[in-house]
Amino acid sequence: MTEPKRFIQVGLGGWGLYWLREVLPRLCSAGLATPAACVDTNPDTFQNAQRLLGIPPERCYSDAAEAFRDNPADFVIIVVPPAWHERYVDLALEYGMDILCEKPIADTMEGCARVYRKVTSAGRKMMVTMSHRFDQDKQTLQRAIHSREYGDLDYLIGRNTWMCRAYGTWGAFRYEMQDPLLIEGTVHHFDIMRSLAGSNARTVYAATWNPAWSEFKSDAQALVTVVMENGVRVLYEGAKNNASCLNGWTRDYWRAECRDATLVLDNRRLLEIRGAVGVDSVTREIPLAQQEVWMNPWLAEMFVNWLNGGPEPPCTVQDNIQCCALLFAAVRSAHTGQAVDVQEFLRESLETAG
Fold this sequence. Notes:
- By secondary structure, the protein is an alpha/beta fold.
- About 35% of the residues lie in helices and about 25% in strands.
- It has helices at about 15-30, 45-55, 65-70, 85-95, 110-120, 135-145, 170-175, 180-185, 185-195, 295-305, 315-335, 340-350, and strands spanning about 5-10, 35-40, 60, 75-80, 100, 125-130, 155-160, 200-210, 220-230, 235-240, 255-260, 260-265, 270-275, 280-285, 340.
- A 9-stranded mixed beta sheet has the order 14-13-12-11-7-10-9-8-15.
- β4 (about 75-80), α4 (about 85-95) and β5 form a beta-alpha-beta unit.
- α11 packs across α12.
- The longest helix has 20 residues, at about 315-335.
- The two termini are about 40 Å apart.
């Protein structure tokens, strides 16, 4: 039997606590991984790792470089804000470790391109946890589309809308930052577009704005049009200032218009609709796919299996750079009012990164 892979987790509070509570105990109990050490700049979070993973106090560090130096490990789990990702990727590469990192790769396209260049040049394995498309409902829709049972996919409609008008409802820092909806709200949805369409993006046009009642300092409403490289069109609606929450987080609306049927995913129910309105219309609910785990626990298992010689998972850094390119190309489009060629934007970014 393969020895468990040793890991260091960086980030123990906030979403890091979710990893400690919901993801890593299963990975460890399956014999796939074991903790070597943990890191957080706030020592108050050490109790999370000690209580949930049994990491002794002497292997809880405030200094990441010290933790990496004193605790040989196979991979690092990075669960800190995106602006800090590159720093810990650099440390992992310095110590010959593979990388499992929360989305996005970095907080700017320049940073994403640098990380991509560094990881691929070093020959290390890196996976980005784009967990949302690996949720049960989105996977069911993706599998239905890709089965070709309903004919070719023509276009997609997506919606994720919220009532986050009051300052701080969606985390105070998002009300102060530039482009909060696109950067903090749509990265998963851009990834879902790519997975449902089975293609990378060719062009993107994003119109963003702030209504008069918004407490965000930057645009938090958007209508986005994407043309994929395989010709599939996508129209996406995202909003944080609405009077209701029609399809909040994990309860997305996606409509796939296929040649032979319309597939509608709405609040975790998937319907197949055929025929004209009235007596000729047929609606059937498609049962959601079943398996033991979804989202991050599933992704973490895929990652460790990859390290053990198994198949390459879907969210490698080589795949995810396309998601980042679509995201930051949409930001450029919102600022310029022009459609952006996503693949040209990506080429320029990688060339600038060296």
